[in-house]
């Protein structure tokens, strides 16, 4: 029971953070918080404005999509979250928004190159972009297939979701994750800033090359390597 | 009488929302609220700043443009609203702004392609843009002819105003509508966001193609189809 | 004496409006208010942050640049204001800012075409841009020569400062004016919005043509012609 | 002791200003304040959010990088600050941010041309951009080598850090400095605005030429020359 309360509060707080970080207008974003032990996650109810949310309004579901607790309908993107929790072990929070710079890259169906250290501080790889979903998958179970599409993209490219915590769904927008709901929103804000910087960079010079490999590696390791020395730990 | 009070309050609230959603500077936008039974609509008075508006300052008119109630001059765009209420049955609110990204597409006289699901969530067609009005029509009755131009554009393109709730008037800017005044402002904000995303998308790749038809249809139907499953209803 | 008090208060209020309309960071903008009867204008003191201004800190000068009242040094741009009040009869307020979109057009040394009705509502001509000032004029009396450059630009192009209330000084930025200090700041905000819309328009289509002449004329006349019908008068 | 207190307070205040001027999201920026007499500087602790900072949380170090006072780990960029204080005599404050327009120029590895007087008011030279750091230097002592790279760039280009108070580190972002911590943040905000104006200028005309030399010189001298006449001194 305490776990459920914590999950609801974490999901609630993280959903409000979408608004604070300006990552969506109206209700165009949702966050979930996952507890691997109980196999349950809390997610935003569908179509409810952020300023009407309460911890109690969060919906609790298991990984088969059964509602464990909650009176409202969960986010229409719930099955995408469900697939990612099932397939990407270790993640405890997922964020989906329609933040405009990330959407621009998704609509152009282009991965975001590692143009600088802001990007490298959060990942050594370009931000992957999926293919468009085929007509069969769309007809079948759209939101579940969106999850499958992301998982497949990571498998095909040999990416590790513990290192690459962001993806662009072609023609749609970003999903980001992390070891907490709060961290997944942080990655949503980071992605938006990286996408903005990358567009501005191409405006200064459309021929810009990615950052040299040795600088990418250095920036990643000073924050995430075995000898990381950023922050207070 | 109660109907009039409700209309004035709805129009007042919706006009304030223009400012909250940052869709116009100074007085560059107006909203009206329409009641089909009485055939009366309430609209912003001309040139009055948003923070000086009150529900009482709204002007009530019938569909022939006669003032039913109100001491101030109605918006200079009143006749455009009037034509749309007369011709587009079922709409109950209209919003006009000069929001800069929508104006950019209108000034370039280009329809906005369906580049992604943000657009498809609100319509399956590109946002139409009218032609320039001819010299005769301008001389005749400019604001009324603006309404005619929009209606004609929808007829020529075979568009249904219940499905396509937005238009760009060439060289001018956006008009949006909906089943309430509040909804028409919502569509004004959606249009501005779609127009911004579309410009950013073209910056990432000027050759970007529209979203595949089957994904457009899916997104529209999950929100507006007979089996819609977005939101709490 | 009352005139001076009014001028100081008008100038003070209008300088604060620069900040509210986001037209300058730090102290990068100044407004003056002019009384044609006494031939005196009040202007922002040089380099003082907006939140430290008071009506009393405004500096009063005559059209020969003599300080009439005030303990602080006037804006370094004072002589430009002085020339414009002397040469452009009828204007009672002048605003200078470094608002970024207007500066972009000034730095590119390009006039802003009339791409739409937002522009036509405030003028029927493109926003003029001066030439660069020559080395002799710069050495002579830079700020006074900036005024001369603007006046000369208007003469060469046959422009009427009562109709075209904005100018871009090449490589520098915008000066705007009006029949009050408040109106000159309004024109500063209008110019910034027009310049932003024009840049966005060129991004949608770099080949965009100006608005047809008959629509430009209509929009100007409905706000400023003999039969103007915008607003409450 | 009083010197240390003053340094901590100056550094604390200047770090908060990063947030107020919107120069970084989350913890992506740091400021230090230096006292040349004692050879000690105060700097932001690593990874601590701005709203959790206190004057007491600032870390004091000497120019050999030894902690003089403070319980937290200093900014991971500390050694870059240390090199600049050692090599650029006269500077008393340094700011590093990831402000997006400055980062765009750094990622494109392009110096920012002097396109206008906003730039010339703060320096007569283009904003320099370093080369990428080589693999050896990255392995050796990354943050110290970042300082060396900046110093070397200034030597190779014959630039005077008292006149050019800004630099772009290729692929990374801006460092700015001044005769106080507050002044270094001011230069950070100025650089961001100049970088934004320069990108917008290239959008109006990609062929834009720099401002003529005689206007650059005039603007610099009216603010910084022996006969400067801007401001109240």
Radius of gyration of chain A: 17 Å
- Give the integer mean of the pLDDT values of chain A: 97
For the record, give the distance between the C-alpha atoms at the N and C termini of chain A, rounded to a whole number. 32 Å
Pair of chains with the largest interface and how many residues each contributes: A-B, 33 and 27 residues
Please state how the strands of the largest beta sheet of chain A are arranged side by side.
4-3-2-1-5-7-6
Q: Could you characterize the architecture of this molecule?
A:
Four copies of one chain form a homotetramer. By secondary structure, the first copy, chain A, is an alpha+beta fold. Chain A has seven helices and seven strands; from the N terminus they run αββββαβαααββαα. Chain A has helices at residues 2-20, 78-87, 100-107, 117-120, 135-156, 181-204, 213-224, and strands at residues 29-35, 40-43, 59-62, 67-69, 93-97, 166-169, 173-178. In chain A, strands 4-3-2-1-5-7-6 form a seven-stranded antiparallel beta sheet, sandwiched between helices. The two termini of chain A are 32 Å apart. The mean pLDDT of chain A is 97. Chains in contact: A-B, A-D, B-C, C-D. At the C-D interface, helix 3, helix 5 and helix 6 of C face helix 6 and helix 7 of D.
